[in-house]
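Help wanted!
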Amino acid sequence: MASITRSRRLLKWIGNGLLVIFLVWTLVPFYWMVATSLKRDKEIYGFEATLVPRHPTLQSYQRVFAQTPFVKYLRNSMIVAVSTTIASLAFGSLGAYALARLRFPGRAFIARGLIFTYLVPPALLFIPLFAVMSALSLIDTRTGLILAYLGFTVPFCTWLLLGYFRSVPMELEEAALVDGCSRLSALARIILPMSLPALAVVAFFSFTQAWNEFLYANVFVNSVEARTITTGLTLFIVEDVFFWGPMMGAACIATLPPVALYLIFQRWVVKGLTLGAVKG
Amino acid sequence: MALQTNSTRAYAGTVVIDAPALPRRPHASFGVRRETRLAYAILAPTLLVILSLVAYPFIGAIYLSVQDKMVGSPGKFVGLANYTELLGDETFLRTAWNSLVYTLVAVALKFVIGLTMALVLDQERRFNNFFRTLLFVPWAVPVVIVALNWRWIFDDLSGLLNNFLITFHLTHDIISWLSDPRLAMGCVIAVVVWAGTPFYAMTFLAGLQSIPRELYEAAEIDGAGVLHQFTQVTVPRLRTIFITTVMLSTIWTATNLQFVLILTRGGPASRTDIFPHLAYQTALGARRLGMGAAVSLVFFPVLVVAIVIATRQMLRDRDE
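Answered by r_m:
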């Protein structure tokens, strides 16, 4: 027993040491990003990398807002991510209700198909989707992007909500149905209000995935009008010149929405991970 | 009431099995038919999305891969010519090897580091919730930003890494991290691991916290040491989480284009070229859509194994 207490104490100190290493490894890149965004160009491109900006300035941020269509990119990202989220919530709730509560031929097959479709990687679909989008004149439109994103958010949302709806007790709903309440109003009045944590998780994931997406945004959009923030950031690279200051400034701003949502929703998010597993 | 079902907990296969056991009431078939109609009506948007945005493009990919279609011009059927051309192509073979090494090493490292991180965060400690929150932040950050930021850290002249090494006299020469053929792949993998480890740590930590403490206490009374407790209690309890996490991560790691595209563009001399990047370059750089589809399909059979295992595991987890 004594040896166990001793190895416990040893493990505790090893754990603390590792924690410090993990924290440094995780946080230094973020610090470097913020520090860079606050430096002047002369300091950024000097031969000596200063850990703390010598003359902190918001110049880079000014350049981002004044000299690039960054605000337009932000707006596009917001429109695309919010629309994707709303549509995913609506489609997902309806589909999950059918799969959780109604009995019909093909139900098991469809439930299985949901995971399968969610796992088919965009890297395989972007080429034929590009052909489809061209044919439908959806290239360079936000609508095209929203549609493309629904391809992975809807199967995931439906799958996650399905698991949650099934855990909502039947009795309340049965009582409502006996009282003559229709299926859809049972969904709206009983199931959805009881599933708020799951809806929050689903909303978080849809928003974040749409906001963070790069491949489709890069392939389907070429114009300023529909460009989103992720591909907008790569425009701070011109030929072989990297505008690190403004790029890191823009990156800091673009990181804020998903990270803020993560901080708000984290308790539910971790639960959602175990419920349905999420892109990582 | 025929509308009532007791199959709330039932799922997938079991539903089919318990269906006939339900009492048959008059008008049951009418109710069932109405239920089916309603079900398909409200499933319609989801099904439409799946069919038009996943199933149709998937078949489209197969169809494209047997054509010589270029961007902006119609293609003609060429049979398996694209595939046979690929198998004789040196870049392709190099890419296949790279993809294998890249995926295996990145997944293995994420697994080991993620498990370590989860074990550390599972220890008792003040402010542990705060540390968890901090360590998981990279997971929420857009991958493109992670990649751009690391490209800046790796920068030859002004980057943080070289400056750090030179300041502390760990090296005298500037190291070209991303353009040195011996280092480039290692750097790409390091960034992938940095971004992907939190996902592992999160799922593993959730698994660790669901293990009842009594199991450890019982093992301790039996005289099991710390290592023994880990192999006899922790590992068997986390087995299913290990499988699901590794399968999902394998799919997403192997098919992620962004890291390579932003860090190295597949260079130097194709040293870091992997399948999704080669497909991207072929389809959009060289504008050969048919060939690009063939490239992305060639690595799909390998992924199917991971997808099938992950699907099975996720269905099973839910039934428990």
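OP: Thanks! One thing I noticed: Chain B has two domains: 13-65, 81-319.
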